Amino acid sequence: MTLTHHETAEDMSPIDDPHDLLRFLEDLPELDQLKIELIDGKIVMQASAAPFHNQIVMKLGMQFESHGWTALPDQALISPISSFEPKADLTVTTPEAMADNANPFPADRVALVVEIVSSDKDVDYIKKRFWYGMSEIPLYLVIDPNIGTCSLHSQPHTNGYRTVTTLEFGEPVELPEPFGFAVDTSAFKLYPPKP
Length: 195
Prior knowledge:
With about 200 residues, the chain is an alpha+beta fold. It has helices spanning about 10, 20-25, 50-65, 120-135; strands at about 35-40, 40-45, 70-80, 85-95, 105, 110-115, 140-145, 150-155, 160-170, 175, 180-185. The strands form three sheets. Strands 5-3-4-6-7-8-9 form a seven-stranded mixed β-sheet. A two-stranded antiparallel sheet has the order 1-2. A two-stranded antiparallel ribbon has the order 10-11. The model is unreliable at about 1-5 (pLDDT under 50).
């Protein structure tokens, strides 16, 4: 069955709660290779990411871990804003905040989220920015290998974030406290041109 442009997962499912539908889909072995998220009331499924994307996630994770933070790739997040349950490419938190192993992970325990832009830019630049800001996640880092930029969003509020600083690949991204270090972007690669 295909959803039309105006139908949401809630409209089509015999399961009332979209989060329960998400859990159901995640448990299907046939969908193991897909990243499944709830974005703006819609179930979004994506194939695995490209190698450059995964390499950026790995390099970032290592940088955060080396500074005493916990970096969680593809971690499901939840907040009182019920029409979303994104899986950030990288979620950064403290070891203490994840001591109870909560999954989905509460957004109020997150210090920073990272999204690496693939093909659907609106999801990362608009929808997730809005949700992360409304969920009061302090920092949102958008890395775009399509154009070679890193945009650090800070000061969350009801329309996303008040402040954005955009830098090019190769320039360090200075993180404010409680981080107090700069993310090294010198090894990030641009996506090759599509044929």
